[in-house]
Every structure is written in structure tokens, then in C-alpha cells.
């Protein structure tokens, strides 16, 4: 049977951009900017993205496009069947772990979209009431599982429909919608009285704020945002024609990812400053601070709906790229039908995700190496395994891949 592939250059590009643009851009980037002092952090982030992460991205792309197979088989076959296949196996397992907890936050976005559709962020509520609403929600045992289930179900439905008919089609429609929404919110946010202070915070660097810790945070974020070290870029690249230009696709993805992060910053920061709030509120920025901002601004109800639609779309296009890594492996290596492969991945990620979700509530006291289940998985995959995956990919291209395989 002929292997499925992307139908066009644009299709591949939006799918790759869809993987890169995600919660990392809309949720994590703005709060990291807030925590690490604004513009100076952004400059470090841009330099590290292009200097370190883009080359790694290109390596992953080269391997995938050359192999035209799932990540595990790519490492195994291009290395001539040596231990590199275990690296391949790692890059198949890690995105499944990440999907599990990513889906929990995706689920929060589902819930917040429902809240926005019910115009639940009303001006009568104080900021601390908004925070309490969020903490009550995430710590309740069952409610977050509902969002988690919906989010994961939509993800596997898209993946189940295949590369051309599912992932590409979905990304082609949703990615432009996502960009338009976020650009619209950014324009609106800049027009708010008092927005200038937010823009200054984003674009007027204070280099004394750069520390080793903020550089490490910028690097970690750049890795996560470009989706490298997880086998996702490799898997997507394997559906790209061998004639496709690696540099063009890689640059285009990196530029869309970066511009989206900046636009997200412009959509969020000016609004936060306009209402005199603190941008340093950490992970709660999107779910605690923003709902309050929406409740205060004119036509905030509509802006809230648009924002949470954007958050959800960004998250889904990223999680489909992670799920595809596992599904491609099961289909090609284990000869399991695509639908069954999707169901298996759904079941695995649902169970692990359910534990991650409950670690905000009933299981909050349960610790692995001093961390909650969610934090443990997040830290292990995004800090350790992702870096290892990237390192091995670069070593693989540099030392193991034949020169004739790199073009
Ligand atoms: N890049 C995605 C984001 O910014 C997350 C992601 C990581 C997706 C790894 C795929 C693989 O949210």
C-alpha cells in the first residue's frame, strides 16, 4: 500500500507550523516573558532559536525526509540496524507522555471555551475570584477529565483521518483562522488605553534582567516551541516529498513559530498592563489573569471566546503532531490498522493524562522525586528527554548518517 503523504508544499508547511505553534506560544511564552523581564528575554530567545534550535530542526527534518518512515524505523534503517533504534524508540515514547499532560491543559482550554461561550467572565468578579474559579476547577476530581477526554478525542479523530485527509486538511483550515484571530486580538489589545506600557515591556530591553536562569528558560522554551527532540518533526518530514527544500520548510516553520509567539505576546501583554495587572503571574496568566482582563474590557465576552478558540486550535494542531508519531510507529512497525492504532494511543494517553490531571486535585500529595505527577512528567520530558532526543539526533546526523543521505 502506498504511504500517505502531504498533498502540497503549503499543506506540509501549515502542518509543521501547526505542530510548532501551540500552548507553548500562547500560554507558556507570554508568562515566561512576564517572569523573566520582558524584552531582554525575547532577544535571548530569538538568538537561541535560530542559533541552536533551527539547526536541530533541520537535522530532524533531513532524517525524516530521507527515511520516509516513522521515527523508530528511520533511526534503525538509516543506521543499518544498530542501537540507534533505541533512540528512535525513545522519540516515539516521549511524545506520547507529553500528549498525556498536554491534553490536560488542552482540556482546561475546552472548559474555558465553554465558560466563555456562557459569558461566565463577568465584570462583577474580582481577580481573586477568577483565580479561585480556576483553582477550584483544576483541583476538582472529575470535571477536568471531561475536557481532557474531549480534547484527546478530537485529536485522535483528526489523526485517524490520515495525513492528507485529516492532519493536512485540518491544519489548512485552522492555522489561517488561528493567525487571523490572534492578529485581531493583538490589534484590539494595542488600541486599549494604557496599552503602551505593555508594548514597552515587550520591546524595550533591560539587559540587567538576563541571568543564567532566564537563558536556560529561553532555551528550553525554544526547544519546546519548535517541537524538536520528540520525533514529531521527523515524522512529519517523512510525509514530505524528497524533492522538498529542507531549508525553506525549516525556516518557514521557525519564522511562523516565532512571529506567532510575538503576536501572542502583543495580544496579551498590552491588555494585561492596560488593566494595571501584573504580568508575572506565571502559568496562571492565561487562565486566571486573562479572564479578569476579558471581564473588564469592552466586548470582552467576544474577545474571550475568540481567545479560547485560538488556544484550543493551537493546542490541537500540536497534539495531533505528537499523536501521529506513535500512530505511525504502530501502523508501520506493528502492522496495526490506523483506527486501532489511534484507539490504543487514545487509551494510553487518556490514562496517563488522567493521573496528571488528578495531580492538581485528589493526587496532589502523591509525589515522584519530590514532584507532582504532572510536574514530574513535564520536567522529565520537556527538560531531560527532549534535550537528549535533540542531542542524539544531531549526533546521528553528524556521525552515523551517510553523507549521501544528507542532501
Ligand atoms: N511546539 C508545541 C507548542 O509550542 C509543543 C510540542 C512539543 C508539539 C513537541 C510537538 C512536539 O506548544
Give the topology.
Layout: H1 9-20, H2 23-35, H3 39-67, H4 71-78, H5 84-117, H6 127-139, H7 143-160, H8 163-190, H9 196-203, H10 212-225, H11 232-237, H12 246-274, H13 289-296, H14 300-333, H15 338-358, H16 373-400
Helix pairs in contact: 1-8, 1-12, 1-14, 2-10, 2-12, 2-14, 3-4, 3-10, 3-12, 3-16, 4-5, 5-7, 5-14, 5-15, 5-16, 7-8, 7-14, 7-15, 8-12, 8-14, 9-12, 13-14, 14-15, 15-16
The structure holds phenylalanine.
Helix proportion: over 70%
Q: Spell out which ligands are present.
A: phenylalanine
Q: What radius of gyration results from the CA coordinates?
A: 20 Å
Order of helices and strands: HHHHHHHHHHHHHHHH
**Which residues form runs of ≥5 with pLDDT under 50?**
none
Shape: globular
Mean pLDDT, as a whole number? 94
What is the number of E strands? 0
Quickly give the structural class: mainly alpha
Distance between the termini: 27 Å
Largest sheet: none
Report strand %. Answer: under 5%
Write up what this structure looks like.
With 407 residues, the chain is mainly alpha-helical. The chain has 16 helices and no strands. The chain has helices at residues 9-20, 23-35, 39-67, 71-78, 84-117, 127-139, 143-160, 163-190, 196-203, 212-225, 232-237, 246-274, 289-296, 300-333, 338-358, 373-400. Helix 1 crosses helix 8 (163-190), helix 1 packs across helix 12 and helix 5 (84-117) crosses helix 7 (143-160). The two termini are 27 Å apart. The mean pLDDT is 94. Bound molecules: phenylalanine. Residues 19-20, 22-25, 95, 98, 224-225, 227, 230, 232, 318, 321-322 line the site of phenylalanine (PHE).
Amino acid at each position: 500500500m502506498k504511504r500517505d503523504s502531504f498533498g502540497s508544499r503549503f499543506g506540509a508547511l501549515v502542518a509543521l507550523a501547526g505542530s510548532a505553534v501551540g500552548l507553548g506560544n500562547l500560554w507558556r511564552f507570554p508568562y515566561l516573558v512576564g517572569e523573566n523581564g520582558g524584552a531582554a528575554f525575547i532577544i535571548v530567545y530569538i538568538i537561541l532559536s535560530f542559533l541552536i534550535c533551527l539547526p536541530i530542526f533541520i537535522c530532524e527534518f533531513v532524517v525524516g525526509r530521507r527515511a520516509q518512515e516513522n521515527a523508530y524505523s528511520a533511526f534503525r534503517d538509516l543506521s543499518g540496524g544498530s542501537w540507534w533504534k533505541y533512540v528512535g524508540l525513545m522519540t516515539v515514547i516521549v511524545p506520547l507522555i507529553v500528549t498525556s499532560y498536554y491534553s490536560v491543559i488542552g482540556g482546561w482550554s475546552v472548559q474555558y471555551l465553554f465558560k466563555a461561550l456562557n459569558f461566565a467572565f463577568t465584570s462583577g468578579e474580582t481577580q481573586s475570584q477568577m483565580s479561585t474559579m480556576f483553582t477550584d476547577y483544576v483541583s476538582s476530581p472529575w470535571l477536568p477529565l471531561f475536557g481532557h477526554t474531549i480534547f484527546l478525542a478530537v485529536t485522535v479523530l483528526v489523526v485517524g483521518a490520515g495525513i492528507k485527509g485529516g492532519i493536512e486538511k485540518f491544519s489548512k483550515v485552522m492555522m489561517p483562522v488561528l493567525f487571523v484571530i490572534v492578529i485581531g486580538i493583538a490589534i484590539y489589545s494595542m488600541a486599549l488605553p494604557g496599552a503602551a506600557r505593555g508594548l514597552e515591556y515587550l520591546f524595550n530591553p533591560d539587559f540587567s534582567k538576563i541571568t543564567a536562569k532566564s537563558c536556560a528558560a529561553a532555551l528550553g522554551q525554544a526547544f519546546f516551541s519548535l517541537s524538536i527532540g520528540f520525533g514529531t518533526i521527523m515524522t512529519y518530514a517523512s510525509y514530505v516529498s524528497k524533492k522538498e527544500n529542507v531549508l525553506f520548510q525549516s525556516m518557514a516553520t521557525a519564522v511562523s513559530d516565532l512571529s506567532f509567539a510575538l503576536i501572542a505576546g502583543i495580544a496579551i501583554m498590552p491588555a494585561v498592563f492596560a488593566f494595571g495587572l501584573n504580568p508575572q503571574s506565571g502559568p496562571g496568566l492565561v487562565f486566571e489573569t486573562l479572564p479578569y482582563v476579558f471581564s473588564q474590557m469592552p466586548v470582552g465576552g467576544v474577545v474571550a471566546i475568540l481567545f479560547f478558540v485560538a488556544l484550543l486550535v493551537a493546542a490541537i494542531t500540536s497534539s495531533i503532531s505528537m499523536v501521529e508519531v506513535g500512530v505511525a510507529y504502530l501502523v508501520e512497525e506493528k502492522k496495526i490498522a490506523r483506527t486501532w492504532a489511534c484507539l490504543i494511543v487514545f487509551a494510553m494517553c487518556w490514562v496517563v493524562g488522567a493521573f496528571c490531571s488528578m495531580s492538581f486535585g485528589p493526587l496532589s500529595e502523591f509525589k515522584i522525586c519530590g514532584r507532582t505527577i504532572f510536574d514530574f512528567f513535564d520536567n522529565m520530558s520537556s527538560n531531560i528527554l527532549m534535550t537528549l532526543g535533540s542531542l542524539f539526533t544531531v549526533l546521528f546526523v553528524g556521525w552515523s548518517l551517510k553523507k549521501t543521505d544528507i542532501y
